[in-house]
Amino acid sequence: MILLFEKQFIEPIQKGIKIHTLREDIHNRWHQGKLIHYKAWSGKGYRSPMIDIIKPSNVISKQHVFMSTYQGRLDISIASKELFGWSERNEFAINEGFVSWEAFEDYFYDMVDKREDSCYSPKLIHWTDKRY
């Protein structure tokens, strides 16, 4: 299956910094062993060809994620374990391809907060052995 990424994530994926991705998976299509094709648009989205970012590999595992907003802050739990400390949040954000937790929070806060219940429950798709 194709995982399509924004341009800002191409380099972190190629350098092995971004080691997983958050995706909605309401139909449970992502499972261990599924082949991942890492793609990005070469130019404008839907108006240019897709390019390969790295060679295909298999899904190693997935974890359930829960994000919510409360009092102007983004909270996150992975596999029912809340990430409380800044260092563990920052490690997660960097592994997700962001430069810091603050950049991750800036990217996701409004999207989560605008949902009816201010919650978002994607899956964390792993292509390495890292777990939280």
Task: Please characterize this protein's 3D structure.
The chain is of the alpha+beta class. The protein has a single domain (2-126), classed as Roll (Archaeosine Trna-guanine Transglycosylase, Chain: A, domain 4). The protein has helices spanning 10-14, 86-95, 101-113; strands at 2-4, 20-23, 35-41, 50-52, 57-58, 61-70, 73-78, 81-82, 119-120, 123-126. The strands form 2 sheets. Strands 2, 6, 7, 8, 9 and 10 form a 6-stranded antiparallel β-sheet that branches. Strands 1, 3, 4 and 5 form a 4-stranded mixed β-sheet that branches. α2 packs across α3 (101-113). The mean pLDDT is 96.
Q: What structural keywords apply?
A:
132 residues; alpha+beta; four-stranded mixed β-sheet; 33% strand; globular; ASCH domain-containing protein
Secondary-structure element order, N to C: EHEEEEEEEHHEE
- CATH domain class name: Mainly Beta
Uncertain residue segments: none
Instruction: Indicate the mean pLDDT.
Output: 96
State the helical fraction: 10-25%
What's the domain count?
A: 1
Number of helices: 3
CATH architecture assignment name? Roll
Radius of gyration, CA atoms, in whole angstroms: 15 Å
| Main sheet makeup | 6 strands, antiparallel
Strand content: 25-35%
Structural class: alpha+beta
* Distance N to C terminus: 24 Å
Number of DSSP-assigned strands: 10
Examine the coordinates and then state which fold CATH places here, giving the name of the CATH topology. Archaeosine Trna-guanine Transglycosylase, Chain: A, domain 4
**Globular, elongated, flat, extended or rod-shaped: what is the shape?**
globular
